[in-house]
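Please predict the structure of the following assembly.
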Amino acid sequence: MTIQPTNDIAELFEQRCIEPSCSATYSIGERIYVCPRCGGLLDIEANDSYAPAADTLKSLWLNRKTSLAVSDISGVWRFRELLPFSAKIIPVSLREGNTPLYEAPRSAAYCAINSLKLKHQGANPTGSFKDTGMTVAVTQAVKLGARLVACASTGNTAASLAAYAARANLACAIMVPTGQISHAKLAQALDYGAKVLEIEGNFDSCMREIRILSDDGSLYLVNSINPFRIEGQKTVAFELAEQLNWQVPDHLVVPGGNLGNSSALGKGFRELLALRLIDHMPRISVVQAIGAAPFASYFNEDRSATFQDEVNPKTLASAIKIGAPVSWKKALRAVDETGGKVLTVTEQEIANAKAIIGRDGVGCEPASATTVAGIRKLHADGFIKSDETVVALLTGNVLKDTDYVNKYHSDNLVAEGVGAISGSYRNPPIKVAGGRDELRDVLTQLSN
Ligand code: F0G
C-alpha cells in the first residue's frame, strides 16, 4: 500500500543563496552547487505559502511505517512532503534511515551525566550517515539525466555513492587521498564498482580538484556542497524528533569534518520548528579532532577574521581529517541559532570514548566517538548539565576501521605528531598456550 501525500510539491521549492547580501534564487532543476552570482552556498527552500499541517504530517509519516512501498519504507523518503521532489518520484533507495536510538548507560556514566542516547547512523545500508543524503542526491542525478556521478572522499561518501550509483546504474568516479582512507571503506567502493582515483595529497586537495572538474558539467558532484545531499541528511532530525515523541533533546552533539552533517541537522530542526512540529531546537554542538579543527578555531577565536583553513590536518579519525570544510557557514548558522558550542578533543580522548561506546554494545568508528569525548568535556565545563537530555550522533559503523580498533586494544595505536595513544580501556585477546585446564582457569576467572 502506498500512502499518497496530499499534493504535488516539487514546484514549491527553489534553490536559494544563503548569503544575506545576495539571496538569489534558482529553480531546483538547475544543475548548480553554489550560487552562480556570488559563489555562496545554496539552500533548498519551500516557498512561504507551503505549510502542511503538523498533525497531518505526524500521522502520515507514522502510518507509512506499516506500508510495503519502497518510498514509504525508506527512512528518508517517508518524510517526502519536506523533500523537493514530485510525489511521483521513484527514489534510488537502499532502505536507508530508520536507524536506532540507543540508551547508552556506560557512555553516560563516562560523561558523568544521567543518561545518554546514541543515534546510530552507522546502521545505514553502507554503514554510515552518508546514505541518507546520497539517496536524495543520486535520485536528483537521475532526474537531471546525469551519466557520471562523482565525489571526493575520506571514505564513507565514497562507499555510499558507489552503492547508490550502482543501484541507479550510473557511472561513478571517486577521488581519495592515497593511503589515507580506511581499507574497509575502499573495499566497499571497489566492490560496488566505482572507479576509485587515488591522488597524492589530502581530502582537501581532492575536494578542490573535483570541484574544478565539475565546472564543465561533465560529472554530477555529490559531496555535501550539493544542497540535495543536505536535504536527505536533514531527515535525520525528523526521525530523531519522532523517536523522542516530538520532544527535542536539550543537546545534540555531532562530529565535524566537512560540516555537511551539522548543517543538515540544523536545517532539519529549523524546518520542524517553522512547521510547529517542535517548539524549540536542540542545542547543536560540533566536535572536531584537535589536529583537524579549523571550525573550532574560528568559532572560539576571532569571529570577525576570515575563516582560516587548516593546511595540514592530522588525526587518526581519518573520516574527519579535513582542513578546508566547504559547509562551515551553514554549520555556523546551525550552532549559533541553537546556542551550541564547537570544541576539540584529543586523539587520546577519541580513542577512549570509542572503547567506552563499544562497551555499550554499540560500536562506532573513531570520528563518531568525538561526540562522547566532547560530551564528557562539555559536562566538565558545565555546559551540559547531568540531568539534561543528550543525544550523540554516531556517524559510522565499528567495522569501518578495524585496524584502528585492533591497534587500540593491543596498545599499538600511534598518532602522527602525538605519539603513542594509550589503550586505557584495552581488551586484548588472551593467548591460551596450554590445554583445556588452562582454558578452564580463564573461563572460571571470567565467571567470578
Ligand atoms: N563521521 C564520519 C564517519 C564521516 O565519514 C564524516 C565525513 C564525518 C563524521 C564528518 O561529517 O563532513 O558532514 O562534517 N566524511 C566525509 C567522507 C568527508 O568523505 O566520507 P561532515
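The longest helix spans residues 227-243. Residues 1-6 have pLDDT under 50 and may be disordered.
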